[in-house]
């Protein structure tokens, strides 16, 4: 596998190794992961912005919400006639929901392969040894003990550094924050 990805790793090394070299602590490159999270968030957010019709998506979501409200109200009232009418409309609403889901998957088709390649590079680079020590409050808010338990079940072993996380969880925390900031800056009306 490494032979197949050699040229890709060469390109990624030329892009990310200078960033890694500028990190104030190259042996524990938390800042580099933050920068990579920003780059990946920017790519995915821009892809969402230009490949998904946000206005149409919001309109369909509002329509679905209104339909569900009308159905709940009819069920509460016990209005069988209205329920039957709404159930007849339900097939059309399901088509809209399917179209809405398809629309949301468009950016994934464009961004999936580059992001996976970046993940493989991160795992094979110095970033793989990254350990971040979180403040105790952040450690519990991010549900890190659950992630540690899952990791110990899936991969064996036990987390040995108190309040410590690896590069993947740090990347996820950074990406979530960056994505929210970028979505707000690019004018998205909704969060994730």
User: What is the topology, as strand order, of the major beta sheet?
Assistant: 1-2
Decide which structural class fits the backbone.
mainly alpha
The end-to-end span amounts to 34 Å
Number of helices: 7
Described by the principal axes of the CA atoms, the overall outline is elongated
According to DSSP, the number of beta strands is: 2
- Helix percentage range: over 70%
Order of helices and strands: HHHHEHHEH
Give unreliable regions as ranges: none
**How would you characterize the largest beta sheet?**
2 strands, antiparallel
| Average of the residue pLDDT scores | 83
Radius of gyration: 22 Å
What fraction of residues sit in β-strands? under 5%
Structure, briefly:
With about 190 residues, the protein is mainly α. Helix content is about 80%, strand content about 0%.
Structural commentary:
- This protein has helices spanning 2-22, 30-51, 54-77, 80-124, 136-141, 144-155, 167-185; strands at 132-133, 164-165.
- The chain contains seven helices and two strands, in the order H-H-H-H-E-H-H-E-H.
- The radius of gyration is 22 Å and the shape is elongated.
- Helix 2 crosses helix 4 (80-124).
- It is mainly α and 192 residues long.
